[in-house]
Design brief:
The protein is 36% helix and 20% strand. It has 624 residues and is an alpha/beta fold. The chain contains 21 helices and 24 strands. α9 packs across α10 and α9 packs parallel to α15. Keywords: Oxidoreductase.
């Protein structure tokens, strides 16, 4: 009989070969935790290769989930529990494990051949090298095969179910229900009844193993986290972005057209939007990145919400057409799910290094709006805002997500009614707006709204509104081709003024003490680590303020005042200081950069340590 111990939070990491199903296992464990009402955050981490060499360090795939009875801001700095399916998974992740944490290891895979693949001369399970951790050796593979002895399946098919055995065991350890996974498997393998029953049997066997073995004498319970009342689901950033785009198009009463070319980690946007055809979504998988954005811009010209999705290398290829959209002054949404670079770089890892490319990576003065969501669920709201800005101001909008947000997940409260969503009001031009030299009604495509500087959006084919568009500079108002120097200067400044005039909210500062000398500011996906790091620092008595940027072009109107009101400003970024460069130049404030480009998000402890160092430099140390 096990003891039940109540705990506040736990971080679990599943790790194995890229063919061991660790992403599926982690996703199911996460979903089952979400059903129980825990707040959570996840960090999938997998190789770029479709099938990396089996049993090698480059082939290790992992999935980390942090769930708690309180607000969770990050996937956790380090695992409390590691499930290692082979020697490579153990070696690749051991350095992240605090002393005293738990390791559940699949002993069946610790053969001499597998040990040699990762450089182990001796089996670490047989010497004293793991004595600092609580190691539970479990022959996961052989127990799974034995549990499936009565199934008419080959050994390899039986072995593939070992991830379900591991999931069942961890579900028992942390009192997770199996109902959600049962339902998921029933749907996934509806046309493969033998595989379905084998996976269900392995899941039950893992749960029963936890109940009956003496090796696991303690179960753990994590109570639900207090949350705003409503209906929740677990959601990744890519799914949230797809839903946000669709909801915005629905609010605008316009079709959504996606032109996309598959690229990691943005491909899921194409996959998810392709499932939403019944909501007026059309998806086009184009032959390349340039064709994809061309289709999206053509859709915008035709009166739809044009969207294109990509990652950093694809954004570079799309730059000429983004410049065309700036010249045409049409709404266009460009989703850039940033990844490690340059070139192919680290396709499955995260980075924030596309900021300067998004801001300036086009020929000529070619301004666009730039938005950076701060969490997986915020991708939903950021996508709606992108559509609002694009349609209101007739401009391309770049949404800078990244691999951490795209693949990570957290609970998301579904809107109770459609009225909770922001309105997206679109008015097409339907009547002439000028007269020609003879006094007859005419349409001037670059006659601007006095408040937004947006030009009218006229659907091609509207009688009397025939007009010319293109990439060659246009005369203000009439839209005729113009090489006049003064006109070009005017048009360049007007397009910039349109972006500068976009109404974005002021930046808010979280400063509980009210007299902090240090401000930590960030943008995009660093929100969670910075907030968690500040929480850690404040727990020791540190006085630190924090703020976060969501709108990067234009920047909030009060940002300069905020930056100048603190003795020191620190800016953590997953690049080499791109936003810091921009803020120094614009506001003449000596921003202190903290940068890392490891392909992984910052940890809370890392940010807390940075805060401590800067407080010491300000003479604010000894706060513990």
């Amino acid at each position: 009989m096990s003891n039940l111990k109540q705990i506040n939070s736990v971080v679990v990491r599943f790790a194995g070969d890229s063919g061991d199903g660790m992403q599926l296992t982690g996703d199911r464990f996460t979903s089952d935790s979400a059903v129980l009402g825990n707040d959570l955050s996840t960090l999938p981490n997998f190789p770029a290769e479709i099938r990396a060499p089996q049993g090698t360090l480059p082939g290790v795939s992992s999935f980390q989930v942090h769930f708690a009875d309180h607000s969770v801001l990050t996937p956790g700095d380090a695992p409390d529990v590691l499930v290692a399916m082979n020697p490579a998974a153990l070696k690749a992740n051991l350095g992240d494990l605090p002393r005293g944490s738990t390791i559940i290891v699949n002993t069946d895979e610790f053969s001499k051949r597998n040990l040699a693949k990762v450089g182990y001369t001796d089996n670490p399970l047989d010497d004293d090298s793991l004595e600092a951790w609580q190691v539970h050796p479990v022959p996961l593979t052989s127990i799974t095969v034995e549990a499936l002895a009565d199934f008419d399946l080959g050994r390899k098919d039986k072995e593939r179910a070992k991830n379900m055995f591991a999931l069942g065991l961890l579900s028992w350890m942390y009192t997770r229900t199996l109902d959600g996974t049962r339902a998921f498997l029933t749907t996934k393998f509806a046309d493969q009844p033998d595989i379905l029953e084998a996976n269900l049997a392995a899941l039950r066997a893992g749960h029963a193993y936890g109940e009956t073995t003496e090796a696991f004498s303690v179960q753990y319970a994590v109570a639900p986290a207090p949350m705003e009342a409503g209906t929740y689901r677990n959601i990744t950033g890519n799914v949230a972005t797809a839903y946000g785009l669709t909801a915005a198009a629905h609010r605008a009463k316009l079709p959504l057209v996606l032109g996309s070319y598959p690229i990691t980690p943005a491909s899921d946007l194409l996959h998810n939007l392709s499932r939403l055809k019944h909501f007026g979504v059309t998806t086009i998988q184009a032959e390349d990145e340039i064709a994809a954005i061309g289709a999206a811009l053509g859709a915008s010209f035709g009166g739809s919400i044009g969207v294109t999705t990509t990652s950093g290398p694809g954004l570079a290829l799309k730059s000429e057409t983004i410049g065309l959209a700036v010249s045409l002054e049409l709404p266009l949404i460009i989703i850039d799910v940033q990844r490690g670079g340059p070139s192919t770089g680290l396709p499955t890892k995260t980075e924030q290094a596309d900021l300067l490319q998004a801001m300036f990576g086009r020929n000529g003065e070619s301004p666009v709006a730039v938005i950076a969501p701060n969490s997986p669920s915020d991708c939903f709201h950021a996508a709606i805002e992108a559509v609002q800005i694009a349609t209101t101001y007739r401009t391309p909008v770049i949404l800078l997500s990244d691999g951490y947000l795209a693949n990570g997940s957290q609970p998301w409260r579904l809107p109770a009614t459609i009225d909770e969503l922001p309105t997206v009001d679109v008015e097409f031009a339907t009547e002439p707006n000028a007269t020609d030299a003879k006094g007859n009604p005419a349409f001037h495509p670059y006659l601007r709204d006095a408040d937004t500087l947006a030009r009218p959006w006229a659907v091609p084919g509207t009688a009397g509104l025939e007009h010319r568009v293109g990439g060659i500079e246009k005369a203000d108002g009439t839209g005729e081709i113009s090489y006049d120097p003064a006109n070009h200067d005017h048009m360049v400044r007007t397009r910039q003024a349109k972006i500068d005039g976009i109404a974005v909210p002021d930046i808010e500062v979280d400063d509980p003490s009210g007299d902090a000398k240090l401000l930590v500011i960030g943008w995009g996906s660093t929100y969670g680590p910075i907030a968690a790091g500040a929480r850690l620092a404040r727990a020791t008595g540190a006085k630190v303020a924090r703020a976060h940027l969501r709108n990067l072009a234009p920047l909030p109107g009060n940002l300069g005042e905020v930056l100048r009101s603190y003795e020191r400003v620190v800016l953590p970024e997953m690049n080499l200081g791109q936003l810091a460069l921009l803020l120094r130049g614009k506001y003449l404030v000596d921003i202190q950069s903290h940068t890392a480009v490891r392909g992984l998000p910052f940890t809370a402890a890392e940010i807390a340590a940075v805060i401590g160092e800067h407080l010491d430099a300000l003479g604010e140390g000894n706060h513990a």
